[in-house]
Amino acid sequence: MTSVTARSLPTLGVRLAICAATALVYALAVDMRGGLLWGLAVATAEAGVWVCSRPQRDERPVGAAQRMAYVAAVTWMNVVWWSLAIMLWRRETPALRLAAFCVVSSFLVHAQAFTARSKTLLLIIGGGSSTLLLLLCGVFNDFPLSQRVALCASAIILITYTAKAAQTNGQQGRALERAKSEAEAASQAKSEFLALMSHELRTPLNGMLGLSQALKLGRLAAEQRDQVELLEESGRTLMGLLNDVLDFAKIEAGKLEIAPIAGDLRQLVDRVVRINEPQAREKGTTITLRVDDSVPAELVFDPLRVRQCLANLISNAVKFTPFGQILVRVACEPAEADRLRIKVSVADTGIGIRPDVLERLFTPFVQADAATARRTGGTGLGLNITRRLAQMMGGAVTARSEVGKGSTFVLTFLCDLPVAKLAEAEPVSPLRLLVVDDYPINRKVIERMLTPLGYEVAEAGDGEGAIEALGQGDFDMMLIDFNMPRMSGLEATRRIRAERRWDKMPIICLTAGVMDDERSEALSAGMDAFIEKPIEMATLVSTIGRLNRRAAAG
Fold this sequence. Notes:
The chain is α/β, with parallel strands linked by helices. The chain contains 19 helices and 12 strands. It has a 5-stranded mixed sheet, covered by helices on one side. It has a 5-stranded parallel sheet with strand order 9-8-10-11-12, with helices on both faces. A two-stranded antiparallel sheet has the order 1-3.
């Protein structure tokens, strides 16, 4: 019944218009009194269906009595329309009898909409209309017997073919329902698999990248520093491949969201350019950045996704530009009230792209050719993800290229103007932190990152250990893993927030997962921020500082 209601509600306006037009035509062309009475009857029928479908509209459970009331309302609706067919038939005018035949036939067609959804309504609408059609053809007329037989035979043919069509529609409808259920189950399984793989892959990556960052803080010989940087670069390359696959899956599932915040666009672009400069220098290529004076320093945008788009475009330009030049230019123009359209062009003097390849370059898993894929690596997802992220931010990505002369990629996206500037915060002072993670290497990585900066770090291996540690000492902040045995970070946070003495303590979720459902659960449980694994030292320190300032202000 809920499914039937969901299909019928969007057509309410059309049905009311048809009812009103039918009553008006009957009143003006056939019988004024009969048309008005029928119009009143059909109005009560539509009102009855509307009232009886209220539980379904409010998405409340439907009881047996409510189902019976809904069936009764639909039955009354059909009786009213059948009465119209009888009224037309009784006029004994060929045209009006043909009209009656059309009315009954239309309800036979209408019955097919319920084939795969409600056998009860199918029986009422289809069975009642079939019975009425046979009665009109074989009983309620003064035709000779031979003509009645011919009419009934024609009616039986119509009913048979309609029933066969209804059976086919029912089979197809049920097949579609099964396919939908299987697709939803497969999508859920894929999401769970992605969450698991993200956690399992990011956890060892966190140890590798975290320790390499911590090692760089110490005194290293030139050769040792070079080896550590190579280790870190390899880890980041693997992380980039993992992120591409996960982002593509999230976009396909419609679960990737844009999260705009106030930020410095100029600084962001400059950092992306600087990150790519060492690799460009090795190839004899120079990168030049030009930012128009009209571009505000502070705008409201999603820095993560903008950085991702820029990194894809600039790193591609570096890959395919040996001994050349790359020009990155940032400009803006008014888009609408309090919004700007940012335009970032990345032009290189590299090898260029053939026209046939350029047409399909934004297709997932497509690269220029097999040799390029082997030489430069990558998944072939970067440009597809970049274009789709740009579209989600109200923009686009376009490209033009000429073989041997280079390529130009243009990224556009919308930004909001900030409402007000936040006051600069004071530097953070050392804090006493509790780090909770079931993976010892992760705890050691965070300790190695924060101890040289003056932070005091204590450790716990799961949620129960975290609660026990909080009861034995005073902590300014807690960093806790989302997934842990015995007691997860989610359950531990709920219990901690239930204690009045800890309800204001900032809690940072350390997660190797990327699913929005996990983040929603964490926020509902009382966590204040997220840090994705592998942990970036800059992100870790800035997040701790931000929450510490907020806690101090509160």
